[in-house]
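Students often ask what a holo structure prediction actually looks like on paper. The answer is less mysterious than it sounds. You provide the chain, you provide the ligand, and the output is a string of discrete structure tokens encoding the 3D arrangement of the protein together with protoporphyrin IX containing FE.
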Amino acid sequence: QRELNPALLPLDWLVGTWESDVPGKGVFPTITPFRYTETLHFSHVGQPILNFTFNAFHVESKMPLHRECGFIRMQPETNKVAFIIAQNSGLVEIEEGELKGQQLNLQTHALARISFAKEPHVKQISRLFQLRPDGKLEQTVSMATDNQSMMQHLHITYCRSA
Ligand code: HEM
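The corresponding structure tokens follow.
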């Protein structure tokens, strides 16, 4: 295991594997509310870049559902963070935001999708990651689509598993 690149020290609290402690909640005005479990994995190979995979599953059947993977970079000498994300739904995305302590607030900076992506199309995503004082990680995701303004879609908490 290589040492974490010093450029990423402000994000050292993310590195490792996180499992949802209780099922996450999914909502949106246009859908039936649902629950899901999710495993997050943040790793590095010594570059000033974190690698990540987010894998979500159906609570009962444990079937794979939503999956994302990508890279995280920080602008040197700043608290600016960029997520470079590919989602299995056919979306690719850049999210950028500011790191404040152990709280990371991100907004879509660029977004593209496959030509045959399911509708409605997502227009904007915002997410908040925060490490809570009790050691749990929390993710909240909101989105705007073709026919809905910015609304919460996901909320989930994770415990460190490795
Ligand atoms: C529905 C986007 C993450 C599960 C949707 C819809 C969109 C969307 C656009 C359709 C809303 C509508 O019909 O008005 C996203 C984005 C995500 C994300 C951008 C990540 C940033 C997840 C995750 C899960 C999930 C992690 C966990 C399983 C669902 C389910 C539905 C849904 C079950 C409703 C059924 C369906 O339309 O397939 N999502 N989603 N989503 N999402 Fe997500």
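The pocket of protoporphyrin IX containing FE is lined by residues 26, 28, 30-31, 34, 36, 56, 65-66, 120, 122, 125, 141, 143, 145, 153-154 (CB under 6 Å).
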